Amino acid sequence: MFRRIEARIVSPLLGNKIDLPSYATEGSAAMDLRACLEEPVTLPPSGRILVKTGIAINMMDPSLVAIVASRSGLSLKHGIRVSQGIGVIDADYHGEIGVILSNDGTEAYTIEPGERIAQLMFQPVVQVGLSFVEKFSTETERGTGGFGSTGKS
């Protein structure tokens, strides 16, 4: 059921103070990433910061991608989210995972060492080849209709 993915520790804090990512429950789709910090760091309102996680991964499979996503509770309670929406970790990247966090809240937020800051999820990848054409070979009912064009609420 599970694929085995290698994790490499790139910080001495892991194993001593910070746990490796793991699934919280049997039904969890993602595992929590933790802040690998020597000391707390404060993120001001409207600020951005790169927070290291202390781990690197080797997916060993180009048909997989790791996705870094926001934690809903952190976002709802404090306005802290993954800056770019999601982070993409390609199968051939073996460096330390860093999470860019933004503070959309009105108050400064202090990130503590070992705090759960984001989620790590693995997804299948489909690579496609694109080519230029003058016209699409098939038409659809929607066509080029964009936002709200289907008339459904």
From TrEMBL:
GO annotation, biological process: dUMP biosynthetic process; dUTP catabolic process
Domain dUTPase-like: 17-151
InterPro entries: dUTPase (IPR008181), dUTPase-like (IPR029054), dUTPase-like_sf (IPR036157), dUTPase_trimeric (IPR033704)
The entry's keywords: Hydrolase, Magnesium, Metal-binding, Nucleotide metabolism
Domain of life: Bacteria
NCBIfam families in UniProt: dut, PRK00601.1
Protein's UniProt name: Deoxyuridine 5'-triphosphate nucleotidohydrolase
Species: Chromobacterium sinusclupearum
